[in-house]
Amino acid sequence: MTILLLIAGLVLLVVGGELLVRGAVAIAGKLGVSPLMIGLTIVGMGTSMPELAASVQAALAGSPGIALGNIVGSNIANSMLILGVAVLLAPIAVARGTLWRDGGVGVLAAVALLALGLTTGLGRVAGLTLIVLMVGYLVLAYRQEKRAAAHSAAFDKAAALENIDPALGTQTQRQSGWAVSLAFLLAGLACIVGGGTLLVNAAVTIAREFGMSETLVGLTIVAVGTSLPELVTSAVAALRKQSEVALGNVLGSNIYNVLFIGGVTGTIAPTTVPESILGFDLPLLIAISLAVMAMAWTGARLSRIEGLALVAGYALYIAFTAGLI
């Protein structure tokens, strides 16, 4: 029953994120917000909604291991499992300027989270600071898109979601009425709140029943589950030979997870960063992010061999984290 509740929570989170984004995009279009800004903000944040709901509700429930484990674990899954699968499907050619800009922001965000964990914790001031940094990144991305510079990871993240849901296009959404748009928005919020509650409660129960730490559950079960939208969107982009979108989706998700989700979590429900995450998982995330940048820099592409290495490395990480090796 607990496993079923966990699955139900994940399904509600994914469905809720979809409905919320549809409603928000429609309302933003009716209010005259530019399609570019809608893509960078509302659509770009769409696949991060499951992580946001899970982390905030876990922090409110007094389970920092699940809240922070979900953020850090999702980024590790993005950088190894999801990027590895995308590369196995189609090798990725890399624009080095984009890689250093967006990959560098992701690394700096992880370093900032590590520094906060070692000092003040993820309190309200720290959370607000992360949100301000997120806004600054979006402003930078918006200006570069307006200048027709190389696409930002935030833009590619939105494009990856629109790949599997063309109805998110603002022209289509403007045709729906206010009542329908608001209904989508409210239904999405309800699903996200309900799904997050089910997921967190089930995760805590699993941790207690099987003698697992909440941090372990957050880093593995919750992190992988809430990263499923990123896995699907990156895989679809890779299959369509849109390799830059697949990579941008991963880099963008990593930025959103730390700055946006971490910021909102700290602002709404201040929490500490578990010592095990500070001592191992966050440094590992930083190392992995730098390694991916190095791989792409050396050959201006990520090959299938490197993709296989990333997936195998993630399998080893899960085995080690679960105490199997």
Automatic annotation (TrEMBL):
Keyword flag Cell division: no
Limits of the Sodium/calcium exchanger membrane region domain: 3-142, 181-321
Domain of life: Bacteria
Broad class of the protein's primary localization: membrane
Transmembrane segments: 36-60, 72-95, 107-140, 178-204, 216-239, 251-270, 282-300, 307-324
Recorded topology in the membrane: Multi-pass membrane protein
Subcellular location: Membrane
Keywords, in A-Z order: Membrane, Transmembrane, Transmembrane helix
A Pfam family annotated for this UniProt entry: Na_Ca_ex
Keyword ATP-binding: no
Protein name per its UniProtKB record: Calcium/sodium antiporter
Source organism of this protein record: Alteriqipengyuania abyssalis
Organism lineage string: Bacteria, Pseudomonadati, Pseudomonadota, Alphaproteobacteria, Sphingomonadales
